[in-house]
Amino acid sequence: MNKKTRMGTVMPKAVLVRSTGGPEVLELTDVEPKEPGPGQLLVAVAAAGVNYIDTYHRSGLYPLELPLALGLEGAGTVTAVGPDVTGFAVGDRVAWHESPGSYAEQVLVAAEQAVPVPEGVDDETAAATMLQGLTAHYLVTSTYPIHAGDTVLVHAAAGGVGQLLVQLAKSRGARVIATVSTAAKEELARAAGADEVIRYSEVDFAPEVRRLTDGVGVNAVYDGVGKDTFDGGLASLKPRGFMVLYGGASGPVPPVDPQRLNAAGSVYLTRPRLGAYVATREELEWRAGELFAAVADGSLKVAVGARYPLAEARKAHEDLEARRTTAKLLLIP
């Protein structure tokens, strides 16, 4: 329950990082109430997404100024509108993917980063769709645009981005080979639509990919795992295939000699980031609009793997980094 100051002002809560480190540094504390400035919305957070990049901010792998209000993504209801803001009003439901301090009861969101949440999409699903959904969307439509008849390899296919990647790749006519670590995760990947599933904890996935493609290889590898899967991914590509390295859950990939791309069959390597693919308001609205439309009509399933109260942000990070989770993790204020 919120505490009050002596003046009777409600003090909202937020998760802060005062010194970088492990999940134990996450602290739920009272913060000063916020007021929206020019171009900003004040939003009551209904759900905040937990993402791997949050662990990089918390640990200092991606250094940020301290103290740090953690979290980037969420959904909720507009409670105040800043000067010069048009297109939004108090009471609107919105979602966002890049508003620092989203592990909180209230957050300031730049209006240009907010997208309306349509009827037929609840707040939790909207929060779970944004960062991972936008990522999956740009990967299959723009980084390597999948064409009907392509064969692609999706690593960590039971994860939040992985399940969305499988579904979106299938919707574009691809054959999807997925990798997972356990039988339970295999079931999730198959439920998302994967045609073939390889348990990389039991077999070397690169030779298996070759076997499944009659020695040809895949058009593209979507790799959010990084260090542990990169070499096998290169070995799984067909000539002139695309290695799309969009994350590093197992650690960063060591420097790569470009001659390796030559030896692998004149393949391409790219390390994309979301910001470059929602560089304009129009692009953000296009991607979010397509995702929310697919969620609303039932053609895209956004799975929530676990929900935690704000006070259990530490446990959410522990579970995420230990790979005890599947699909999306949410914090619920």
Please, could you describe this protein's structure?
One of its GO terms (molecular function) is NADPH binding. The protein folds into two domains: 3-130 and 279-332, Medium-chain alcohol dehydrogenases, catalytic domain (Quinone Oxidoreductase, Chain A, domain 1), CATH 3.90.180; 148-271, Rossmann fold, CATH 3.40.50. It has helices at 52-59, 123-143, 160-171, 183-192, 205-212, 230-236, 259-263, 281-296, 313-321; strands spanning 3-4, 10-11, 13-17, 26-30, 40-50, 68-69, 73-81, 93-96, 106-110, 115-116, 151-154, 175-180, 196-199, 218-223, 237-245, 268-270, 304-309, 328-332. Strands 5, 7, 8, 9, 10, 17 and 18 form a seven-stranded mixed beta sheet that branches. The protein is globular, with a radius of gyration of 20 Å. It starts with a strand and ends with a strand. β1 (3-4) and β2 (10-11) form a beta hairpin. With 333 residues, the chain is an alpha/beta fold. It has nine helices and 18 strands.
